[in-house]
Write a structure and sequence with these properties.
Blueprint (H helix, E strand, L loop, with lengths): L4 E7 H11 L6 H22 L3 E5 L7 H5 L12 H16 L4 E2 L6 H14 L3 E6 L14 E4 L4 E3 L1 H8 L6 H8 L14 H11 L2 H7 L6 H8 L1 H11 L11 H4 L5
Helix pairs in contact: 1-2, 2-4, 7-8, 7-11, 8-9
């Protein structure tokens, strides 16, 4: 088997929603159709820029996921997708299929889980390089395993050095960092009064979340007290930010093979 493959995993709604929200006009079916036209161009540009041999186009299925089952308040403050956009999505998915892409939307998991499963499998099988097109923080943990993240909106690569510069920790510690600091947009609680800098400092000093809880969590300081008091919610936060890597995708690599038109 040739190892010269290149997987492009596209975080579909990440692109669609960014394009939609950047558009100044009020919510309407016209805004949705304009945004999806631009989003389709974004997909085209991604395919031309990276010339992948395989494409995983992942979208959130919607509805509750395993994360809601773990923590019912997950994403409770996140604004729902505008109705006009939701109604226009099936037609958009059909356009992507006609362009030769296989759209994956699986119930009870998020697109992040689908991408993480596909990318990890690809890399573990030694099939070549893996690129994730997203601006999502969580997916940057895949950089630790050899993937690269591509920010389509800034036209920039995010690699190991970028993650360290941006978050203050190595990619493999990113989920521990997000668990400590929480993520208000996703409703991940984290530990109160711990921001990115403090979380990074703790992780770099102790080496892992478990070591932070064991070490800093016994200190007679306000920080130590909070780590002790909020230990259980911290464990839940850590599970919420973890990416599932064992999703049954129901596709073969052949089904995801892409030939440019």
């Amino acid at each position: 088997m040739s190892t010269q493959g290149k997987l492009l995993a596209i975080d579909g709604l990440n692109i669609v929603r960014r394009v939609y929200e950047a558009s100044p006009e009020p919510d309407s079916d016209l805004k949705a159709s304009i945004a999806l036209r631009h989003a389709f161009s974004s997909f085209r540009i991604l395919l031309e820029t990276h010339a992948p041999t395989h494409v995983l186009a992942a979208f959130d299925h919607g509805g509750t996921t395993w994360r809601h089952a773990l923590y019912p308040r997950y994403r409770e403050n996140r604004a729902p997708m505008p109705g006009y956009l939701r109604e226009a999505l099936p037609e958009f998915h059909e356009r992507l299929r006609q362009a030769g892409l296989h759209v994956l939307m699986l119930p009870e998991v998020e697109a992040d889980d689908v991408i993480a499963t596909g990318v990890m499998r690809w890399l573990q099988e030694g099939r070549g390089e893996a690129i994730v097109a997203t601006t999502d923080k969580d997916l940057h943990v895949l950089v630790a395993h050899g993937a690269l993240v591509w920010d389509h909106f800034k036209n920039e690569w995010h690699d190991d050095a970028w993650v360290r510069q941006r978050f203050g920790v190595a990619p493999e510690l990113l989920h521990d960092l997000l668990a400590l600091m929480g993520d208000p947009t996703d409703g991940v609680p984290g530990v109160s009064k711990i921001g990115m800098k403090t979380a990074a400092r703790l992780l770099n000093a102790y080496g892992s979340l478990e070591a932070v809880v064991a070490g800093a969590g016994i200190l007679k300081t306000p920080l130590g007290e909070r780590l002790r008091a909020e230990r259980e919610i911290l464990q839940v936060s850590r599970q919420l930010v973890e990416l599932k890597r064992d999703v049954r995708l129901g596709v073969t690599w052949n089904m995801l093979a892409y030939e440019s038109h």
